[in-house]
Amino acid sequence: MQQEEAHRLDVLRRYGILDTPREEAFDRVARMAAWHFHTPVGLVSFVDDARQWHKATYGLDEQEISRSHGFCRDVIRKSTVTVILDARKDPRFRVHPQVTGFPHIRFLVAAPIIAAEGCRLGMVAALDRHQRRKVSKTDRQFLVDLAAIVAQGLEERLATQMVTREAATRRRIESELEVTNTRFRLAITNSPVVLCTEDRDLRYTWIANPPGSTSPEAFLGKTCEEIWAPELARDLSALKRRALEQTTVVRGSVHLLIGDCRHRFDVTYEPLYDHGAIVGVSGAAVDVTERHEAQEALKRALDGANEAEAAKAHFLAAASHDLRQPIQSLFLLVDVLRNALRGQPAARTAEAAWEAVNALRGLLDSLLDISRLDAGLILPQIASFPLQPLFERLTGEARPEATRKGLRLRTVATRAAVSSDPVLLERILRNLIENAIRYTDRGGVVLGCRHRGAVLRIEVVDTGRGIPAEKIDEVFREFVQLGNEERDRRKGLGLGLAIVRRLAGLLGHRVDLRSCPGRGTRISVELYRRHVSPICAAPKNASRHLEGRVLVVEDDIEVAQAMAAGLQQAGLQVVLAASAEQALASLAGTQPDVIIADFRLRGGCTGPQAIKMVRDQFGTAIPGVLLTGDTSLESLKQAEASGSPLLHKPAPLDRLLNVIGEQLSSSPGKRHRCQA
């Protein structure tokens, strides 16, 4: 029942009759009903869910009444005519509000208005304040006809509304279509894209924006062979036939001579359908000449930049090698002189020379670190270790420089242990401490750490000059130094923080810098805390007095002689050779205990090759040590791959002796010994 009522209300709303202005056609029906039955009131009413609304009234002024106070709700319960001869005597209506009150109805005859779907929407009725004796069958049929006229009027009214709406919709669609067509024509006309359609015989049926100055009409009904040059026509036809045969989108590139210029077009063809059947192809062509030329120019520029970069790297590697050779010689000779002059009046001069060449070595080592990082030759060795010994060692190294500048340098004691590469982390923190001392003029530097759950922040805090916010990113770039426009070598090369950032990235540690100009800087390194696990202790330095035979393969005579002087001063026997062949001749069948070879020798031979030749001669794996002043990425990779310890020029004599001592201790024969 509720579903039927809901459906009835939907149909009533669809007609859109409620709350509409008076219409003469409906007023005429109300008058005819009243006149035919000689009653003072005639009605055409509709009932919705809450009210009885009068579309037309005769002899009554009210527009609507409550649904419960009207007769229409009772009339629409059945499809036949409702007749009430005397409402006061009818038990169904004698207490009805319109019977007991205004307008005091006693007689009513009403026929339901039945829509085309069978729903009863309202009534056509005649009402009187006086009773009647009877209503004839003819009278009843007359009222049914009036109700049918009203229903027909509703249908016609609905049809008119639909036609009106449809006409308005059609006009709106036509207007929008015209706007769309105008826009499409403008887009096509001003587009650089060539568009076309062709039939199954590959004859043009439509084309827009043909290339060159050719008119569209010149294409219609023609094939490619009738328009384009043979080579171009062959390529275009092949693409179109593939689109037809494979029923798929086909793409390609063709070249077209327009005037004196050769243009490149990217073309696309796909099947053209009509009611599911393939009737031809549609195509699009885009002139990509400028884009292609720009890409080619960019490629040439990139190739030129890569060649320039390679040339620069080659030049720097060669310059580094040539620079490190005399510095290696100078370094060893100064070290020998320094040892020989201990306790002599000239010892202070020798120490000053030593400090100068040591500073130069530090600058070159920073450059070498950048090269090794770029070459991917630094591989982390992760272990768990306590921080306090590292803190004490670093502050012990840096305290003399801090004291010289009148700065306080202190460490906040910690029991924390971390997981990292101990050597690389030490290099990071040493760079940070040195940088903090270098740019702090008063106050001090503090090294400590903070805990944040599983994360630990190692912090270096200073009271130095500070860094402006807009310069913070710059200080991590290579060769950038704030406040060193004169490039004072004593202030370094500006590589310390660049190396810090690269090493931290290699280890997966986060570096954070916060600074306030005039108040100082805080740099932190974030890493994970760990429980301490044993790690291998660093090998102790070998004694300064060694015994054994060392073969030195070095083609730079000055470097070779300086190295021989230092090694002989430590008690070693030295055999000098400029090449592998000369080494074999100089040894005269006597096996050396250690081979020291420069990585790059004359004649295209390398240090690893020279070591192998000597080993092959004696049939044993003689320990080898490589020396190199080459910083090229390829050379560094080859040297690392050789398996021999690698020292970078200029190598200090102490470091060289330590490595030789280690090699002597591991030599299979162990015919030699290190003396305390």
How is this structure best summarized?
This protein has 676 residues and is of the alpha+beta class. 43% of the residues lie in helices and 23% in strands. The protein is elongated.
Give your account of this protein's structure.
43% of the residues lie in helices and 23% in strands. It has 16 helices and 25 strands. The protein has a six-stranded antiparallel beta sheet. Strands 8-7-11-10-9 form a five-stranded antiparallel beta sheet, with helices on both faces. Mean pLDDT is 82; it is low at 479-494, 531-543 and 670-676.
Defining traits:
alpha+beta; elongated; 5-stranded antiparallel sheet; 43% helix; 676 residues; single chain; 6-stranded antiparallel sheet
Task: Give a topology summary.
Layout (H helix, E strand, L loop, with lengths): L1 H14 L8 H13 L4 E7 L3 E8 L5 E3 L5 H4 L6 E3 L12 H4 L6 E8 L5 E9 L8 H54 L2 E7 L4 E5 L21 H17 L3 E9 L2 E14 L2 E11 L1 H52 L6 H29 L7 E4 L1 H17 L3 E4 L5 E4 L1 H17 L5 E9 L2 E8 L33 H12 L2 E7 L3 E9 L16 E2 L2 E5 L3 H13 L3 E5 L2 H8 L6 E5 L8 H12 L5 E5 L4 H9 L4 E3 L4 H14 L7 E2 L1
Parallel strand pairs: 13-15, 20-21, 20-22, 22-23, 23-24
Antiparallel strand pairs: 1-2, 1-6, 2-3, 4-5, 5-6, 7-8, 7-11, 9-10, 10-11, 12-14, 15-16, 16-18, 17-18, 19-25
Helix pairs in contact: 2-5, 7-8, 7-12, 8-11, 8-15, 9-10, 10-11, 13-14
Question: Helix count?
Answer: 16
The overall pLDDT, averaged over residues, is: 82
Overall 3D form: elongated
Rg over alpha carbons: 52 Å
Distance between the termini: 115 Å
* Sequence stretches where pLDDT stays below 50 over 5 or more residues: 479-494, 531-543, 670-676
Q: Beta-strand percentage? A: 15-25%
Largest beta-sheet details: 6 strands, antiparallel
Strand tally: 25
Helix amount: 40-55%
Oligomer: single chain
Strands of the widest sheet, in order across it, are 3-2-1-6-5-4
